[in-house]
Amino acid sequence: MSDFHELIKSFPKTRDYVRDFFVYGFKTRNDFKEKSPRTYDNERRRLESWLAPYVRKDYAPGGSSISLAIDSSLLDTNPLFRVWKTKSFTDNDIVLHFLILDLLQDGRPRTLEEITDSLLTQYEALFDIQTVRRKCNAYEKEGLLVKTKSGKTVLFSLDNSLARWLGSNRQVLDACSFFQMAGHFGIIGNELSQQFDHENRSFRVKHSFFVHPLEKSYLKALLSDPRMGLFLEPEQLKDLRHMLSAVPPLWRPEQFYYYDRFSDGDPYQDERYRHCFRILLQAQKNRQYVDIDYISPNGNRLHHQYVPARLEYSVKNDKFRLLALNPGKNGRMKLELLNLSRIQSARPVEKILSSCMDLNTLIRNSYYKEPVTLHIVNRRNALERAMLHFANYEKNTTKIDEDTYECLIYYNQRMETELLIEVLSFGPMLTVIGNKRFLRSLKARLRRQRALSLPVISS
């Protein structure tokens, strides 16, 4: 075995099931034609075990359909990472990868003979010593293992210096919590967070569509992102750059082109913005009140005490918004949305929110009782485009005739304008059926657009 390739078993069948029966959600058991109904039942049960918290069943004349009921702005991680992690590895080379790293987790240096013997005694995995030698030497070159000599004896151990640094600089784990949802190769950030038992309680991401010794290369790539300065102080960034100086980045910013992202993103390198971000993030973790000075979109200057509840990031707008709890006069908490770039100052005060609130429940309770009802005519690939176009919303799709599908989208007041724009931008294959409130807003917006486009006639 001269080369080491991380070969994995392909799972296009599973991917297709997730897409057709869960993400789209309009197919029933009777629509499954590829193999036997028993095969469909087996695959459905497997997928339900991975994605159980988000599975919804609906009953229709053609049979029950299952779908994922997800508002992506409420997620703390991408649930489809679980599907990726269940891919079965069949190549001995990749099995050896996991066994060697697990064996050396205790930090004790071992000879090649000790590693080979331990693989057999602890894991019942038989490998010849030449294979183990080539693998360990390859990992030493890539920086995963440390190779030392004691006389004529060669010892291998796991390089835990980065892990120790991460353990003592946990702000970078906040960055991993954010970038697992808003960055490239987010599953690596998810793995790093899980290894350090770090839960994402602070960030949610909008307009995010779920579609090796990688950790060091992943962190090196994040250092080129200006948003990393929101989480780490300059001295911490300097230390991390020094530790990763010899590591190639997993990607470079110029390799990606964002075709639908607005160009007026937040000023991530502005020191005032960074200072406010860190204060709000820390206050959110501690449920602490913050004195905020804010300029509204209308230009009014507002000053109030809020409890930061969550930081929301829009991939499309490249902006952060703060979901903040505002205590009303009747003692009930009201949820408000503040653009971070409009916050002029943030100062923590000596006051803690005593009660614990379920923010996702608060947001779901704010949804209008009637969802938006859309009819989609499946021509020119309209159905698949619609599922991607509205992937950010919790929705339910059913087939109502041969080429027409009904899609129900659940939303609240703060989502309304954005949803309105996305509906108008879709095209003629989509018809808005209801609700009445949304139809009124849609017609009013069309009238305003028509008035702007009419020529001005001078008297």
Structure commentary:
The chain has 459 residues and is an alpha+beta fold. The protein has 16 helices and 14 strands. The strands form four sheets. Strands 5, 6, 7, 8, 9 and 10 form a six-stranded mixed β-sheet that branches. Strands 12-13-11-14 form a four-stranded antiparallel β-sheet. It has a two-stranded antiparallel ribbon with strand order 1-2. α5 crosses α6 and α8 packs antiparallel against α9. It is globular, with a radius of gyration of 26 Å. The chain starts with 11 loop residues before the first helix and ends in a 6-residue tail after the last helix.
Low-pLDDT runs: 1-10, 209-213
Shape descriptor reads globular
H/E series: HHEEHHHHEEHHHEHHHEEEEEHEHEEHEH
Q: Largest beta sheet, briefly?
A: 6 strands, mixed
Distance between the termini: 87 Å
Gyration radius (Cα, Å) is: 26 Å
**Strand share of the residues?**
15-25%
Number of helices: 16
Mean pLDDT: 81
| Proportion in helices | 25-40%
Query: Count the strands?
Result: 14
Helix-strand category: alpha+beta
